[in-house]
Amino acid sequence: MEPSLHQIPKSHFDSLKKIESGYWWYEGRLIWAKRFIRNWLEENVFTDPIFYTDLGCGTGGFGIGIQDQFAIEQTLLVDNNCEALNKISQLKDVQTLKINIESDFTLPFSPNLITCMDVIEHLEHDDLFLARVYNSLNTGGLLVLSTAAHPFLYSSWDKKLGHYRRYSKYSLIEKIEKAGFKIKHASYGWSFVFPLAPYRFLFSKRQEKLNYPQVSSGLNKALILASQWESRLSDWIPYPFGTSIFMAASKE
Question: pTM of this prediction?
């Protein structure tokens, strides 16, 4: 029997699909990931075709956003939930695949770029998953990952979303390195909203549906701009806290 996956509730996918169109949380993840990928390409003077896989792709907006920014030969969006995969635009030249990523999965090609955004907190056996990701990635390839930060922020919102845990930066680094990866960059993210973190406990109790908080257009633009500067400055500023962790790691 395959191990069970702590899934995002189906009712949450409509909310995820809506925020693909410019919501600051979605755009912020793309900002961090694009920077990591550009650094990887520049450092390696990369000339090989990019074969890209987004594991735990959800409704597909993030993976398509990465495809639109880089010269990618082939894109594969992977998720275990048909509800999510059915919401991916069929107009984009991408391949989708339904598999349980917490099982011994096999990909149809060997990627040299894998993203895994806000996925491992949903997996009971995250260490086994990371080992499988390592084995799936080509040598010289890059893993870009994000996840929920700080165990003490674990709330009923996390429970509703099917999170097993939240991570400290150092516990995540330890897990990534144990799987065989070399850390290229690791940082807390969205440190500028961290002071509002206690609100999540009140918000999650009152919120029956798992919808992301609405923000005004002006505030949304300001949060995106803040994400851009935070990502750029992370090379020099070791942020001590944040609501997420962003990480890039390579397979040497």
Answer: 0.90
